[in-house]
UniProtKB/TrEMBL annotation:
Signal peptide: none annotated. GO terms for cellular component: P-body. Belongs to the DCP1 family. It is found in: Cytoplasm. One of its GO terms (biological process) is deadenylation-dependent decapping of nuclear-transcribed mRNA. This is WH1 domain-containing protein. GO terms for molecular function: enzyme activator activity; mRNA binding. Pfam families: DCP1. Gene3D superfamilies: Pleckstrin-homology domain (PH domain)/Phosphotyrosine-binding domain (PTB). The keyword Cytoplasm applies. Keywords: Cytoplasm, mRNA processing.
Length: 57
């Protein structure tokens, strides 16, 4: 699948969750969410991993 077709498909799927999304500005194939613990001065993994999309609404 070429990049234009993939972006179109991803946009259609994202719009099912939020119809206000009008464009995908950027994306990453893999992202992990961390939280900084100020008491331990270390990063804590929150358990969210996967594709991330930066969208415009």
């Amino acid at each position: 699948m070429d990049l234009v077709a993939r972006k179109k498909l991803n946009l259609e799927v994202l719009k099912r969750h939020d119809p206000n999304i009008c464009d995908i500005l950027d994306q990453s194939a893999h992202a992990v969410v961390y939280k900084f613990d100020t008491e331990k001065t270390s990063w804590e993994k929150l358990g969210y991993e996967g594709v991330i999309f930066l969208t415009q609404g």
